[in-house]
Design a protein that fits this description.
With 332 residues, this protein is an alpha+beta fold. It has two domains: 86 residues; 221 residues, Bira Bifunctional Protein, Domain 2 (BirA Bifunctional Protein, domain 2). The protein has eleven helices and ten strands. Strand 8 and strand 9 form a beta hairpin. The protein is elongated and about 100 Å long.
């Protein structure tokens, strides 16, 4: 029978062990398959029920003390080994390495700020509903009053996937919204669009747009102009020099394009197309254009980011210059 003095001596040996190999040997000596405590447990089969209970309590207490001592000594030896290694090979007085803190991408910053502006104006974002990158030709073209012979439908300008298309504009969400929501409608949608464009300083084949749609029985062009002027001022934090140019879009009438003046480059840059929702678009969605009017516009997110951050090439937003991207802070 193992006595209390045996356990006391065993604990002392464990605490004085100075390497992990000897410590493991002591573990096996006490707790291994043929260890002293293991053997004592095996001999309990010859004892009475009361004797078994008393002995089991003593042995479990011994076992617990041995396990705790081994675990504590193992931690002590590991810490000692780490300290020794550091003292030989590391200079802990050196300054720490530079930490690279993550940043929100400039495009996402612009989207977040636009979302915040339109939320304040009572618009609802449908970027999780009625927002599909793979669209039907009807939603992307037909329901938006784009005729079948329009050049945008050709294989040279649109990416076709069987009977679907990769949407060429976020305006493709308009038919879904108009059909599923009763006016008045105040909606915005953010998403990627796809066009067969040759990449250059202001064009990439995949980019981001925001579509804004407002429909009620009192809507006028002045509501459109007020909304555009306000959000441009909000985004850039100051009143910008902008111009409205008469244009043509099949899904709006009248239609305009809006340019922002770039003083350093001394040129105008188009950032969005807009207009009053075409009566045929309303009619295609089941609404009476004699009773309802609306405005819609689509803005290029990358173009806004380029102007705000002073970038000369839209491709910089997709490059690997982390210092440039990290330095873009729209909320500063």
């Amino acid at each position: 029978m193992i006595s209390a003095s045996d356990i006391s001596a065993g604990l002392s040996n464990i605490q004085s062990t100075d390497n992990l190999t000897d410590l493991d040997a002591l573990r096996v000596f006490w707790l291994g398959k043929n260890g002293l405590i293991t053997k004592e447990f095996k001999q309990m089969s010859t004892l009475s029920k009361e004797q078994k209970a008393d002995l089991a309590k003593v042995l479990n207490d011994f076992k617990s003390k041995i396990l705790d001592a081994i675990a504590a000594q193992k931690n002590t030896l590991l810490d000692r080994a780490i300290d020794q290694e550091l003292s030989k090979t590391k200079d802990v007085s050196l300054p720490s390495r530079r930490m690279h803190v993550g940043r929100i991408h400039p495009i996402t910053q612009v989207i977040n700020k636009l979302y915040h502006f339109f939320e304040l104006r009572g618009f609802t974002s449908y970027s999780h509903d009625h927002n599909f990158e793979l669209e039907s030709e009807d939603n992307n073209f037909t329901f938006l009053n784009i005729p079948e012979n329009h050049p945008a439908r050709s294989m040279q300008d649109t990416f076709f996937i069987k009977d679907k298309v990769l949407r060429t504009h976020v305006s493709a969400s308009q038919p879904r919204i108009l059909k599923s929501i009763e006016p008045p409608i105040k909606a915005v949608v953010f998403g990627r669009v796809y066009r067969s464009d040759q990449p250059d300083a202001t064009h990439v084949p995949v980019f981001h747009q925001m579509e804004c749609l407002y429909v009620d029985d009192q809507c006028s062009f002045s509501h459109l102009k007020d909304t555009i002027d306000a959000f441009i001022t909000y985004i850039f934090g100051k009143k910008m020099k902008i111009r409205y140019r008469s244009s043509y879009f099949p899904f709006t009438v009248p239609s305009v394009e809006i340019d922002v003046w770039l003083p350093q480059e001394k040129k105008w840059l188009e950032i969005l197309g807009a207009g009053m929702v075409h009566p045929e678009v309303l009619r295609n969605a089941g609404h009476d254009p004699e009773k309802l009017r609306g405005f819609a516009f689509g803005v290029g997110i990358e173009r806004l980011a380029m102007i705000y951050f002073g970038l000369s090439d839209v491709r910089q937003l997709y490059g690997a210059d982390l210092d440039l991207l990290a330095g873009c802070n729209l909320w500063q």
